[in-house]
Amino acid sequence: DEASQLVVDLLSAREGQRVWDVCAAPGGKTLSLAGAVGERGWVMATELHARKAQDLKERLARYSWVDTLNHDASGGPPSELEGLSEERKASLQGGFDRVLLDAPCSALGVIRRHPEIRWRRSLADVKRSARRQLDLLHSVALSVKVGGVLVYSVCTDSPQETTELIKQFLLAYPE
Question: Which of 34, 175, 159 is nearest to 105 (CA)?
């Protein structure tokens, strides 16, 4: 929806930049990023779930400057980059100009559209989501080049997954 697309604007990706869309499925943000960087740029879109990654690959196949990979980003960027050009592999050494982590969350922020979430989520789910998000955030932060931009977003409003998580992250990365 419109609100989820606003994070793409926050990223401020520009023509020719290298961008990593970390949790990319279903691909709407990736498509916007592809338009922003253009053919001179590169978007690496990764997705943890194989089926979603395959759907993403098919959806974005016509964009030669977008590569989609089935990958768990909690370990950082992919080390196995099968199918990528040597130029793209080499460009990873300097990091990404922009990284978008629209992290999987408890989805408490979309209760209005999905009221059943209220009964499907527990405090344990929120805590588990927050731990996963912080792991992802730490892993991808190291892939942002000096002077680059990292945008972290979630569709929830729980403090554990938003303000408290960002405070923890900034303690580890005060710069």
Answer: 159
Whole-structure pTM value: 0.85
Catalytic residue chosen out of the listed positions 101, 155, 158, 165: 155
Residue 26: partners with Cβ closer than 8 Å, 6 or more residues away: 52, 55, 56, 59
| Span 28-68, pLDDT tens digits | 999 999 999 999 999 999 999 999 999 999 999 999 999 99
d(CA 110, CA 94): 37
pLDDT single digits (tens) 127-136: 777 788 888 8
C-beta separation of 144 from 26 below 8 A: no
The number of beta carbons lying within 10 Å of the beta carbon of residue 57 is 17
Q: Catalytic residue at 155?
A: yes
